[in-house]
Amino acid sequence: MQTEKINIWEFGNKVYIKPKNKFLARINSEIHKKFGNKKNFYLKLKTEIPYGTFRNLLKYYYYKKGYYASLFTFLKICNKLKIPKENLQKNIDSYKIRGGYNIIYEPILPVKITPIFDMILAHNIADGTVINSKKNRQLYFGYRQFNKKFRIAYVKKLESIFGKIKYKKEYFNKKTRPYCPAVLSLVFFKYYNLNENSFLSKSARLPKKLLNKNNDHLLAVLIAFIIDEGNIDSSLISIRLKNKKLTEDLYKICKKLGYKSTLTKKGKYGNLYILRNGMKKFFADYIKLSKKYREINLYKMEKKIRNSFNIYSRKISRIKGNKKIIIRLIKSENLTVNQIAEKINMTRQGVRYHIHKLENENKIFRKGYIGRKNIVYSFVG
Fold this sequence. Notes:
Blueprint: E1 5-6, E2 15-19, H1 21-35, H2 38-45, H3 51-57, H4 60-64, E3 69-70, H5 71-80, H6 85-90, E4 92-97, E5 103-105, E6 111-112, H7 115-127, E7 128-131, E8 140-143, H8 148-162, E9 164-166, E10 179-180, H9 182-191, H10 208-211, H11 215-229, E11 230-232, E12 237-241, H12 244-257, E13 261-266, E14 269-274, H13 276-292, H14 300-313, H15 322-332, H16 337-344, H17 348-360, E15 364-370, E16 374-379
Antiparallel strand pairs: 1-6, 2-3, 2-4, 4-5, 5-9, 7-8, 8-10, 11-12, 12-14, 13-14, 15-16
Helix pairs in contact: 7-8, 7-11, 11-12, 11-13, 15-17, 16-17
């Protein structure tokens, strides 16, 4: 199946470009060849732009100063000169939104609608914010992510689809919210016919157009939600959202992909559980997709899934002496349930069962906390 593409003229009329010098030279040459001079061409073009401004658009120094020109104006110029707009697209040095600061250079045009494209949209639905800081300004996405690896991965996903991004500030290195430049956010809004309300946490839905796509696209969307809203347990993957309809959309994806899963609804929340057998198939599919698209990476969550498989493949998870092993560990060092589970490849539920027994027998006690919830256990010696 051929990959769908979006040309830059389909972005809308707010796009401003910097043409390549060779292409600018070609335009000037064509104008002099066919119309004699710029003034004659300007009069035939019938544009509302003042002649002084128009003349500057065709000079190299104008772009050296950091100015950009309207894509719409250049499309009009090319049309008059009978230069195919595809040639213009190939000769764009960089582009941005009108009045914007963040620039796309070494652009990838036309834009290919790959699974990464839809994964970016899913990130923006799961943990994104639509920002409208100024009146009549183009809406753009801010993606909230506390894990630095996932923040940088988000930007790499953007760059793999659109080209290199020159940010005014690299917010994502220290702060928790990388931005999707307005000119790129515009593409998502237009392609899926979305608006500001499409991303409200309590009412957001996956577009029907997306849900009808092939398995690679659907899997990329599911992975994005696992990264942003998922929890990896020793026996399942869970996604809990304060949006029951959106959770239903994800459940539909799981069913279409053949992942054994369940959906429960309690109060305002929807809970999706990808069960153990479903998790195995999901993980195998994830590995295949990550080989096709290197930007897809679960990082520490991948390790958690691998560890969960190891729990059930080792004899230690089934023998009766687990309680003795746990007490030996706590004798040597103070540990949390999670730390013990990781050390002996046992489920957290199983470790908790033995921990409660050891507490009741007064063999261990609660020494303190790591963070707010992780209890540290110590041996009563």
